[in-house]
Structures are given as C-alpha cells and as structure tokens.
Amino acid sequence: MDIGNNQVKLLKFAKDYVNKTEAKLINSGTSSLCFFSSWFPNMGYAKLKLFSSGYLYLPKYLFLLSKNLLSIAKYNDYSLANRRQENSLYNKVIISNCTASSFDEDGNFFDNNFNLNSGNCTSILWFLTSVDNKFPKNLNHNVRILYKNKNKKYSFVFLIKTILKILKQNRYSIKSIKHEIFVDSFFSRYFAEFFFDEIIGGNFKLAAFPYEGQPFLHNVTFLFKKKYNNIVTVGYHSSLPPIPTSLLYRVGSPDVLLVNGDDQLFYLQTFLNWDLNKVRKISSQKFTNKSNDEILNCVYLPYIIFSEKIILNTIDSYLNIAKDFSLLKLTVKIHPSQIDNPHHIKMMAKINKILMKHKNKFKNNEGLRNSIVIGPSALVIELLEKKISFVQLCVNPSFEVYSETIWPNIQARKVSKHLYTYNLKSFGKTLDLNKNKIDFNEFFDDIIKN
Q1: Taking a C-beta distance cutoff of 8 angstroms, is the pair 37, 306 a contact?
Q2: Residue 48: how many CB atoms within 10 A of its CB?
Q3: CA dihedral angle for residue 172, residue 176, residue 180, residue 182, rounded to 10 degrees
Q4: Which range has the worst mean pLDDT, 51-55, 286-290, 291-295?
Q5: What is residue 436's predicted lDDT score, i.e. its pLDDT?
C-alpha cells in the first residue's frame, strides 16, 4: 500500500467534491459534507472513509450520519458569559476555545496560539467557546465565553424544531438540505447568531482565529465581510494533521493564513488551491525550541480514539519484543481537551494495565527515551524537530501517517502494521520552532495598516 498516493487521492476527492458543490451554487464553506476533517468523525471524514474503504464502510457511514444529525440536540441550552461590555474599545477580535486551565486567578485568559494575555491587550476582544464549561466569574472586560448550561444535556424537542426549520429554509430541496442539516453546518449558523449579536458597536478592523477549515469560521468570515467593509481575517494553521483535507481554499477562507514551516507552504499550494501571496510563514509561537520534560517518555492518547482493540494490541506487541530493562518508564497522557472524558480515562487505565504487565521492560533512571504517539497529532512534528525518539501508532495509516508525498521534508518508515518511525531531512523546515517571539498585538496592527 502506497500511503502517499492514497493520501493524494483523498485530497483530490475532497477538492473535486468541493468544486462540484460550488458549481451547484451551494456554499461549500458552511457545508458539513465539505468539511473534510481527516482526524474527527464528522460527515466529511465519513465521506473520505467511504471513498477510501468502499461499501464495507457503509454501516459505519450511516452510524456517523445519524450521530452528526442527532448531535444538534446538545446545543439546546447555550449562553454567553460576560456579555455586552463597551465594544467601541476594540478594533480586533480573536475567536478561539478555552478550558478552565486557560485562565489565571485574576480572570485573565492566556491565548497559547497567539501567545497573548487578555489582561495586557485592551484593544482585543476574545470571543471563546468553552470546551469544559468551566471558567472564572471574574473575567476580563474583553472576554466573552459561549458555554453550555447544565440544565439539559440533550433536547430532542430542540432537535426536531431545528430540523423543521432547516427543511423550510432550504425549501425542502434535498440538494441543499443534505449540506445544511448536519451539526457542523448548524453550528456555523448558531455560533454566528451569538457572535454578531454580541459584537455590535465594535470598531473591528481584524479578526483572527486558529484555523482548520471549520464551517463556523467560514460563516463568520463571510458575514464579517458583509458587515465590515475593510476587515482583514487572519487564520493560524497550527494543528498540522497528516492529510490537510479540510484546508481547501474556498468561500470564507481567511485573507491571511499563518503557517510555521515550508512543508505547509508546499501542500497548501500543491494540493489545496492556496495562492502563496495569502500565506505567511512565521516561527511557531505555540511550539518552542526549549526542552520540555513533559513530552518525554509518554503514551499520548489522541482527541478521538478510533479503535481500542488495535491500540491495546499494538502497544502490547510493541512491548513484547522490547528487551528487558531497555526503556524508561512510560506515563499515559490524555489529550488536553479530553481530560474529563470517561472513555479516555478508561482507556488510560487499560494501557496502564498493559504497562504493568510489561514492567520488566522498564527502569526508572537509564534507558531508551521513547514515547508512543497515538493517531494524528502535531506532536509527531514537534518531537521530530526536537530530536526526541518516538513511535507513532496509526489505527488507519492512510489517514494518520505523515508521508513524504504531502510532507516533503519527512521520511516515514514502517515498523509494523500499525507502527511508524520518522526522520527529518532538514531541521526547521517542517516546523520552525519559536526562535523569535512575536508580539501578535503589534503584528495584527501592522496587518491592519498594510
């Protein structure tokens, strides 16, 4: 199996589907079917898997279809915290996510994408979506948070009303409805209602956000252009998936896209229709060149666990063939956004059980430093650039391996059916680690002036 060629076929499939959708005068930017995530099981992912695996994937496709429709029910009871302060103070808005750990005791939000503290940036408004619905009461005046109340987890009355509304708005046209009826498209409209109702009165010249081709950001960008004549939109592509199928240039794409390496410039231009005049390479502010003991000797659980069985069996087999006392002790770490997820917590316990079973493979002080990265993760790139040894466990290699075809500076080597190791041809080309700290407040002001 040539993984690189398979990945190019997936990129071509996504591009062709977006082109056909736009030819029918349908907005591909807000379409759930055109949000081709390669790492999250949305409708775009389901279409990629159906194309890749054929009709054997049809039962799973139908399951994901149902899930992506029923998921609308969880948005029945959202509110906005700290709403409607004096918006005339702000000329920039940053759209992002937050968790409880994003704030200090004074209610300041730290934006780790742009390396900014809300308490120090009086001209920036942050509009955040809470991942864990936990945040301090003493928020800065320039922070708004969209969060879910805990009264109802799901409301199927809300779901039915929403479906009927979508059917009516699309005049019962199946051609349009199939693009608008799933959760990603719904959220693009739902988010925009909260957002534009709240930012009334602002003097906004720039909007910035971490960008992975999400429909809600395409919708915000599209509507922003209608409401504010001269606004500049800036996306920051920092998550680095192996197959960047969601980043096709289209309606709602940002005016400026920030990236951190030459490989990203390559695939944006070669496969994703981006004009490089719209792309700026900067050194990473999220990943630094400083040593970090927290990323050593760990088993990293991904955001989505696609197959417990494959993961557990592969880790067990990997440790089976390791020499006794050859490895440093491994610690299991859960993806930061899934810390409280019961599924991830149970999975961590199962992996710990396997590590205990092979305890004779480890010693506490000296041994091979070797982490295990599960699934698609920017951590693969970070570890490579920092010269830290690791193996990547890929449940579905065609979707999870960093191939030289897409990432020209990376060489992948297959260790077993689900394990891969890598080398870089040159350091600093795939990810330019933080050598020069950027003041994004000033950086954004320069973009506005130019």
Answers
A1: no
A2: 23
A3: 80
A4: 291-295
A5: 75
Question: CA-CA distance, 341 to 120, in Å (whole number)?
Answer: 33
Q: Is the pLDDT reported for residue 168 higher than 90?
A: yes
| C-alpha span between 162 and 185 (Å, rounded) | 12
CA 260/CA 239 separation, integer angstroms: 10
Measured at the CA of 211, the angle between CA 207 and CA 215, to 5 degrees, comes to 90
User: What CA–CA distance (Å, rounded) separates 397 from 374?
Assistant: 11
Q: Which residues contact 435 (CB under 8 A, 6 or more apart)?
A: 283, 289
Q: How far apart are CA 313 and CA 357, in angstroms?
A: 13
- Reply yes or no on whether the pLDDT at 229 is more than 90: no
**Residue 220: Cβ within 10 Å count:** 23
| CB contact set of 120 (below 8 Å; sequence gap of 6+) | 441
Q: What are phi and psi of 306, to 5 degrees?
A: -85, -30
- How many other C-beta atoms lie within 10 A of the C-beta of residue 54? 9
Residue pLDDT, tens place only, 297-322: 899 999 999 999 999 999 999 999 98
Residues 315-350 pLDDT 10s: 999 999 988 888 888 999 999 889 889 999 999 999
Cα dihedral 375/379/382/386 (nearest 10)? -90
In this structure, which amino acid lies at residue 352? N
- 91, two tokens: 């000329």
Residues 196/223, Cβ–Cβ less than 8 Å? yes
State the pLDDT confidence band at 16, using cuts at 50, 70 and 90: very high
| DSSP result, 40-77 | S-SHHHHHHHHHHHGGGGHHHHHHHHHHHHHGGGGGSS
Quickly list DSSP for 336-389.
Answer: GGGTT-HHHHHHHHHHHHHHHHTGGGEESSSSB--EEEESS-THHHHHHHTT--
